[in-house]
Amino acid sequence: xxxxxxxxxxxxxxxxxxxxxxxQAYTPMLTELGITYPQYLVLMVLWEKDNQPVNDIAHRLxxxxxxxxxxxxxxxxxxxxxxxxxxxxxxxQFVSLTEKGLEMEEQAYQLIPAGIGKQLSACPLQIDDxxxxxxxxxxxxxxxxx
Length: 146
What we know:
Layout: H1 11-33, H2 37-48, E1 52-53, H3 54-60, H4 65-77, E2 81-85, E3 93-97, H5 99-120, H6 127-145
């Protein structure tokens, strides 16, 4: 057996498992808000800056527009966002938060940071460790995007 092909030697498996478990940890809080994890990501983009073109949201999430569009359609049906055509280019769509979407920011703030913090409280990592991990992951992401 080749050591390079053993599961325990794969960084990709650790990243996959961590991603899956983190998403799972968010699920009860997001269920309380009535949204999915991908919808939460869209909301965070819009909470940072409202009224954005679909292309900008997709770019920020590092996804294709055709992946984001059905997600936005579901969010619009839920009354979380609104979509409208661009004034100068009718092919471009802009996404804005509705009152419900704006209110969800405070609800998310009350639920999620404390909830995730509680779940990770037994983990021996400190804030600096998480910041270093984020920087290392950013390096991997930027390298693979090229």
